[in-house]
Amino acid sequence: MAIREGKWRCPYSSGVNRGAHLACGGCGATRDKEVTFFLEDDAPEVTDEALLARARAGADWLCNYCGAANPPDRSQCRNCGGERGAAPSRPVVEEGAGMRSERSEDPLARLPEGEARSNPAPLVIEPGDASGAAPGIRGATLARRVVYAGLALVSLRSTSRPPRPPARSAGMNPAPLIIEPGGASGAPPGPPARSAGMNPAPLAAVTRRFRPVVTTVLLLLVAFVAAAAYFGLRRSEETLTVAGFEWERKVAVEAWRTVRERAWEGSVPSQARVVSRRQEVHHTERDQVGTRRVKAGTRDLGNGFFEDVYRDEPFYRERPVHRTRVTYDIQRWVPDRTVQASGQDHAARWPDPALRAGEREVSRSEKLVVVLNGKRTYRMELPEAHWAALQPGQPVNAVMRGGWSVLELKQ
After folding, report:
1. Considering 14, 163, 266, 390, which has the largest number of Cβ atoms within 10 A of its Cβ?
2. Whole-angstrom Cα distance, residue 53 to residue 39?
3. Element (H, E) at 31
4. Phi first, then psi: what are they for 3, rounded to 5°?
């Protein structure tokens, strides 16, 4: 299976390094357990024999004393010299087809908004002491904190002891050199950036000025909606007068006729008269004809390299299944016509369908409406018994909804 070299981002300088490198090429920091490997989509396959041997040697082991990553063939830590002992190894993780991207594993992308936008603290470098020791970065350990300034500049700060006072004589150490980080172009550092969550003073003043107006408008809108809902849905009683009637009645008719239909062999009715038969595709079936190798994802080898993971999946071929399709004629009742009658009087009647030979009445339907006068004219559909009991000019007590529709007529 193919081996591909991944990359890792230094948590101190944010520089991107090759997976085979155990130290950052930008700041020299040793790769440790905080590092996460990622594989780019266009990473080429490794062909160099030395790199392939290193990739297949196994996962890095992490020093129990300093946390540095070491190749599996070392028995002592390359950073602090500590014995390997029972030091843990990086886990070998198998991932799906959706491989991790540099963006998803970028440590800078996971920083809180406020911290990512603040200026980093200065890098303090002290010269050697009076004994001639080599200069170093202040403190016994480095704070593992990544911040963003310009294009991902980094701050390293002390976690062990406070800074020493400046030297007061020629025999003592001179004052430490303080390097303030600047922009990505190398320009001198500017004033601290304004936090993204802070609003300028003029904008805050405008907001305070118009806040009462906005609040008043919202309260008026809520009051209007509440009033409209109350007056539109509240129930009341009103005396109405019967002003007229409307009615419509329908009769549906079917006819006994010969119709042409199609069905699969075995589903043809016994009374049918077959017209034709032909072979047609009834359905398709899948037949396995073999297997094929497909890439299922990658395996993080825990040493800066990734291995392609493949699996065998079955390969199918669609096969049509034919059956006999039958065309036939058969006698059936089918919808033929609808006869209707209507009027604006109080004498509703059913229309005469005038059935002929080979026809039958299927169903009847009606719509009976009473016209009522009050503050306005209303129309209400009623059952036949209630509609027939009303008389023109008769006063009736009605339950109204919002004054615009009739809910019920009381007896």
Report:
1. 14
2. 19
3. none
4. -110, 135
Per-residue pLDDT tens digits for 336-372: 999 999 999 999 999 999 999 999 999 999 999 999 9
Spatial distance between the Cα atoms of 99 and 298, rounded to a whole number of angstroms: 7
What are the contacts of 97-105 at 24+ separation with CB within 8 A? Answer: 97/295, 97/296, 97/297, 98/297, 99/39, 99/41, 99/297, 99/298, 100/38, 100/39, 101/38, 101/40, 101/41, 102/7, 102/9, 102/16, 102/38, 102/40, 104/38, 105/9, 105/36, 105/37, 105/38
Residue 36: closest CA among 137, 109, 114: 109
Q: What token pair was written down for 126?
A: 């002290």
For 83-119, write each residue's pLDDT tens digit.
998 889 988 888 765 444 433 344 444 444 344 333 3
The dihedral through the CA atoms of 388, 391, 396, 400 has a sign that is: positive
Quote the pLDDT of residue 264.
97
Helices (H) and strands (E) in the chain, counts: 4, 17
Cβ(297)–Cβ(2) below 8 Å: no
List phi, psi (to 5°) of 96: -75, -170
Q: For residue 227, what is the enclosing H or E element?
A: helix 201-233
| pTM listed for this prediction | 0.46
The C-alpha angle with vertex 283 and arms to 277 and 288, in degrees rounded to 5, equals 135
In this prediction, residues 237-263 reach a mean pLDDT of 95
Q: Is the dihedral of CA 218, 223, 226, 232 positive or negative?
A: negative
Three-state SS sequence of 81-120: CCECCCCCECCCEEECCCCCCCCCCCHHHHCCHHHHHCCC
Mean pLDDT (the chain, rounded): 78
**What is the DSSP secondary-structure string of 332-366?**
EEEEEEEEEEEESSS----------TTEEEEEEEE
Cα(23)–Cα(153) distance, rounded to whole angstroms? 18
Task: Give the whole-angstrom CA distance, residue 68 versus residue 62.
Answer: 6
Which pLDDT score, from 0 to 100, does residue 411 have? 64
Q: Helix, strand or coil for residue 300?
A: strand
DSSP H helical ranges for 262-399: 384-389
